[in-house]
Structures are given as structure tokens and as C-alpha cells.
Amino acid sequence: MGSLSIRVILADDHIVTRSGIKVLLECDSRMTVCAEASSGREASKLCLELSPDVVIMDISMPDLNGMEATRQILSTNPGIRVIALSMHAHRRYISGMLKAGAVGYLLKTCSFEELVCAITTVVENKTYLSPSIAETVVKDYLNSSSVDQMSRTADLTGREKEVLQLISEGVPTREIAKRLFVSESTINTHRRQIMEKLNIHSVARLTKFAIQEGLTLLEG
């Protein structure tokens, strides 16, 4: 990056978390926080407008989670480097973010120095994983059964995952259609296709599935 500032977008639905990270990052002369987002959808929109170097992405966010936001961001601007910053160390979240295109994964318990190290690493077109995360990734790679466990979500398109998240969060059909700029009948078609692909035929069970697969917010 030379002497140029590294432009960062912070995406996290907790304002205290974003504010804390912003204060710390801006103590480093190499970093500039150019925008903040409280949802994956907002992060995706800001990336289109601002083309940052790095996005620090929480995974569990309402409206559009970090995995789907990462896919959307990289589909339009593959040069952006996404680092997951999450409270979750479970294989499902790590695998989901890496498959979506993230090049870094940190836990929220990491030190500020590690976060800065991750940012400076990924802008050099390298990957950064916390040691505990790297261990999980290696085990996942060695355990072929993980492919089978991921296969049910793999059957869904990106848009179907978006709709599933919104359904599981209790958003009414009319509001989902409004947010995604489509008709209510289109959303009903998506819902029917999701249920058929997953062989799940109630909203309660869809919600449970979305939580288990890390597509929507977990309690606590």
C-alpha cells in the first residue's frame, strides 16, 4: 500500500463495538475508517459507493448476515479484502465465511495488535487466520464429512439464503419484497422453493434450520 492510507469499512450491528474498533484503528496512521454499517445490506451498499480496501465484517447481523454480504460485495468488487470478526469459532461460521470469499477470520477476543496485523496482511494479498481458527480449518479440511454437513445450504441460491434469513427473523412477506425490490409473489415462490429444497414445511422449522446453519442471529 506504500504511504497510502488503508481505507476500512466496519460492519457490525453493535455500535459500541464499531466505535471501539474505530477509535483504536484511527490511532494507527496507516488506517482510515471511511464508513460504518449496522447490517450486511448496508455494508454491501457502502462498498459499492466507496470501494474500501478492507471490510471488517461481523457474521451475525440482522437483515443480511456477514456471509451473504461478503458474497454480494465480492461479486461486484472482488478486490475488496473481507476480514471476519466474530464471536463464533464454530466450523460452520468459519467455513461459510471462507467459502464466501473472506481472506481473514478473527475472534472478537483477539487483541488490537492482532487486528492491525490481519489488516496489513490481507492488503498484501495474503490470508490471515487466528491460530485457533487455522487449527479448525485444517481439521475441517482433513474431515471429509464436513462437506456432507454443508451440502443442504449449498443447495440454496444466494437470494434464497437472503429470503430464508428474513423469514426466520419474522419479517413479513410484504416487507421482504420491499427490501429486495421484488413482488410478493416472487417472495412466495422463493419460500416454496426453499421449503422444497430443504424438505422443511413450516416457518418454525425453517427458523431453527437458519439458526443452526449460521444464516441468522443466534440468541445470546
In short:
This protein has 220 residues and is α/β, with parallel strands linked by helices. The chain has eleven helices and six strands.
Strand and helix layout:
Elements: E1 6-11, H1 15-25, E2 31-37, H2 40-50, E3 54-57, H3 66-76, E4 81-86, H4 91-100, E5 104-107, H5 112-122, E6 128-129, H6 131-142, H7 145-154, H8 158-168, H9 173-180, H10 184-198, H11 203-212
Parallel strand pairs: 1-2, 1-3, 3-4, 4-5, 5-6
Helix pairs in contact: 2-3, 3-4, 8-10, 8-11, 9-10
What does the model show?
There is one protein chain. The protein has 220 residues and is α/β, with parallel strands linked by helices. The chain has two domains: 6-142, Rossmann fold (3-Layer(aba) Sandwich), CATH 3.40.50.2300; 147-212, Arc Repressor Mutant, subunit A, CATH 1.10.10. Helices cover 55% and strands 13% of the residues. The protein is built from eleven helices and six strands. The chain has helices at residues 15-25, 40-50, 66-76, 91-100, 112-122, 131-142, 145-154, 158-168, 173-180, 184-198, 203-212, and strands spanning 6-11, 31-37, 54-57, 81-86, 104-107, 128-129. Helix 2 (40-50) packs parallel to helix 3 (66-76), helix 3 runs parallel beside helix 4 (91-100) and helix 8 (158-168) packs across helix 10 (184-198). It is globular.
